[in-house]
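User: Structure please.
Assistant: Input sequence and predicted structure:
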Amino acid sequence: MKIEKISKDEGYVEITEEEYLEDLASGLSEDEVLKPGRHKFIRGGFLKRHPNFNPATVETVVHISLGLDLEVLKYFKQLAVETNADSYETPIKQALREAMEKARPTRQAVTEHQALIEDPQFIEAVAERVRKLSKKSSAKPVSKSSSANKPRRRASQKTS
């Protein structure tokens, strides 16, 4: 393979017939290897050809290693059999997604409350409301005949 760099963003790759056949013999398919000839490469060419591509919208699967209790694994394997799922991973993913979706409104509410707490206008409005309510409650006279001021009788005291 001969590589010719034209600039930092452009270059050519030449593939010989022999290299092409070697790649096919190694188990790669025709659509996975470059055909013999000279091929031009441009850095960032994909985005130029696909200007509306948004990588944030592409669903990504991440492979992880996760230790599960045997009982949990058996449950999801049985669930996969009962629901004709491709594998036991499918019901695990569904359960995790349901838990995530269920928690989302709570997390959104917390975020909205946090936004209010950080809003100076909201805090000032609440403070003003508290001041008004405090003035109203301190302006009300305490009645002497209220039941709060009367002494309480104990149930064991006899009245004559």
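The helical segments are 17-25, 45-49, 70-82, 89-117, 120-139.
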